Amino acid sequence: MQLRYVASELGNGLKRNVSMTIAVILTIWISLTLVAVGLLMRAQVNTIETHMGGLLEVQVAFCAKQSTSAQCVSGQASREQEAAVRKVIDKSSYVESYRYRTREEAYATFKATHTDEDGNLDPVAKTVQESDMPTGYWVTVKDPDDTGALVSSVANLPGVEAVFNPRREFAPVYRTLNVLKWAALGGAALLVLAAVLQVSNTIRLAAMARRREIGIMRLVGASSIYIQLPFVLEIVFAALVGAALACGSVLAIMTWAVPWLRGHVRLWPWVEMPDALAAMVVVVGIALTLAIIPTLLMTRKYLKV
């Protein structure tokens, strides 16, 4: 009987406050979509940093079989040449740490950046073999300003095809992506605040509309949770609908926008579905928190239970 009453009150509450419920759903949808976009932007920045190396990392690429630069006229770099470069890196006072990049790792990254919108390898990637990939060292320097000194010390060594300094080449990209990420999260924070205020107004109006029956319930000894539950479920329903729409927006981004970007911008790998699923889990968690905690606080204030 009690569950039937709660369900009945939930349905009546949604009917009474259709416009307010729609407003809450739309506000939560837009705010949580921006939260998800911000999280995807953060994941994309991390993906680019992993692929390109951090701003403190210098990439030393050795000559491969297919290298055509003037420094690689003697062919693929030998183990002795790689060892000589390693000695220079070991002795450098600018180096904090370094790691060796194998052909397998280079080939995996190459394939990730040469796919079409459907995830298939493009014609160029199909002609490249793992043995064609260059090995190299990824070197982390102690200070960003030291990258130039390190580059000059190894760039002309035998067997070195190129030294790539991502600090100089991709610093504008990192800055732009970080600005977009924080802009999305900042806008989402403002909309989440708007959603909290919207929830507060919805609870206040609903409490005023039901104050007569709430007074009767108090007189007959109804518990606080019994009185609060219809209000909580009403907001939870709106929050879950908004979260579902936000998750649908994320899926739309992963289905259409990301494949398009992957097919047209091949400088680095793009976010994958696990990143989107992680963002959706956060979105649902925020939606439930946004629904339950403010609603319990507001109902205690306006219902005085």
Give an overview in words:
- It is a single chain.
- This protein has 305 residues and is of the alpha+beta class.
- It has 2 domains: 2-51 and 171-303, no CATH class; 55-168, Alpha-Beta Plaits (2-Layer Sandwich).
- The chain is 69% helix and 8% strand.
- It has a 4-stranded antiparallel β-sheet with strand order 2-3-1-4.
- Helix 2 (18-52) crosses helix 9.
- The relative contact order is 0.18.
- The model has no long low-confidence stretch (mean pLDDT 82).
Which helices and strands, and how do they pair?
Elements: H1 2-16, H2 18-52, E1 57-62, H3 79-91, E2 95-101, H4 103-112, H5 123-126, E3 136-141, H6 147-154, E4 160-164, H7 166-209, H8 211-219, H9 224-264, H10 273-303
Antiparallel strand pairs: 1-3, 1-4, 2-3
Helix pairs in contact: 1-9, 2-7, 2-9, 2-10, 7-10, 9-10
Short description:
This protein is 69% helix and 8% strand.
* Total E-strand runs: 4
Give helix % range.
55-70%
Count of structural domains: 2
Cα separation of the termini: 22 Å
**Structural class, please?**
alpha+beta
> Quaternary state, please?
single chain
**Poorly predicted parts:** none
The chain-level mean pLDDT equals 82
Radius of gyration: 29 Å
Strand sequence of the main sheet, in spatial order? 2-3-1-4
Tell me, briefly, the overall form.
elongated
Strand % is 5-15%
Largest sheet report:
4 strands, antiparallel
Order of helices and strands: HHEHEHHEHEHHHH
